[in-house]
Amino acid sequence: MCYNVLCDKYATRQMYGYCPSWALDWEYRKKGILDEIRHYAADIISLQEVETDQFYNFFLPELKHDGYDGIFSPKSRAKTMAENDRKYVDGCAIFYRTAKFSLIKEHLVEFNQLAMANAEGSDNMLNRVMPKDNIGLAALLRTKEAAWDNGVPSDPAQVQQPILVCTAHIHWDPEFCDVKLIQTMMLSNELRSILDQAGQSFRPGHKPDSSNVQLLLCGDFNSLPDSGVIEFLTSGRVAADHRDFKDLAYKSCLQKISGCDKPNEFTHSFKLASAYSEDIMPYTNYTFEFKGIIDYIFYSKQSMVPLGLLGPLSPEWFKEAKVVGCPHPHVPSDHFPLLVELEMTPTVGTSNGLISRR
């Protein structure tokens, strides 16, 4: 499950004047959000725009009652703030069902720090990318026996499979499409490093092979399906002169970030597929001023098979209820939750010590 829950401080009457004040109030909305989470009862839940205080004092204790544990990180600005102000900073959270998964390691990806480290003297990198303190958060999980709903693998060594779950909240402003794409490229590069390390730890003595670790990438990418961000993630490449770079001088920085030696494009080797297509989900964010797809669940298509997903709310209901935008008394966020059921393919050991898939 992937869900941007709309942080309380962003839920203002100025932004959402069509929603009654009582229905914008966090004390009201949080009950509806928790009800949705509990209703769908996903094994893995990724949330964006979670306020720090609400993670520790609401979401985590409530979901622990339901058999989950979770990790969280606020946006990078929290490090510079007083303790009392820090608790209102929003961030990303990942929850997992403890009967099915154990947490091996968590990873925080801070885009402003990566921008500074890879600036290569670029004013655009320092002035446009670095000030945006969005984050990605990743949890390296290991499956337990209970995770295999369709039958436990016959080989006990295959029961405990690594899976990397990553959620991210990419910068929002459409005028900064270059920043969105660069943040996504930085995230991809960090995930490659995490996966290589994980592959090595699960197969000590062998060459690092990130394909041994299944990847789930979900979040609010603030990017439409025809954007450079989604092109990069789904096709594995983006042209160096893509329009989203705005003809700004990023090339040397991006070659360093991507580790790609191709002069005219930047690539990654993940084989990702989007769980949702435009014909299934016409919008994931629904406000008076904007309706579109900006939230996504991507999965490793060589090792996961989609079995089903949660579709959109009925267009007829929107018309009949005269819903011009969300939040709404019956819809607690301006984003809709995404939910996909995936079947994992267990890995199989081969005589030469390599890993293959069934």
From TrEMBL:
Subcellular location: Cytoplasm; Nucleus
Highest rank taxon of the organism: Eukaryota
GO MF annotations in UniProt: metal ion binding; poly(A)-specific ribonuclease activity
Iron keyword on record: no
Gene3D superfamilies with a match to the protein in the record: Endonuclease/exonuclease/phosphatase
Keywords: Cytoplasm, Exonuclease, Hydrolase, Leucine-rich repeat, Magnesium, Metal-binding, Nuclease, Nucleus, Repeat, Transcription, Transcription regulation
Signal peptide residue numbers: none
GO cellular component: cytoplasm; nucleus
Catalyses which reaction(s): Exonucleolytic cleavage of poly(A) to 5'-AMP
4Fe-4S keyword on record: no
Entry EC number(s): 3.1.13.4
Positions of the Endonuclease/exonuclease/phosphatase domain: 2-335
Main location (coarse class): cytoplasm
Cofactor: Mg(2+)
PANTHER family linked to this entry: CARBON CATABOLITE REPRESSOR PROTEIN 4 (PTHR12121), POLY(A)-SPECIFIC RIBONUCLEASE (PTHR12121:SF100)
Sequence similarity: Belongs to the CCR4/nocturin family.
Protein name, entry field: poly(A)-specific ribonuclease
Organism: Temnothorax curvispinosus
Gene: LOC112457040
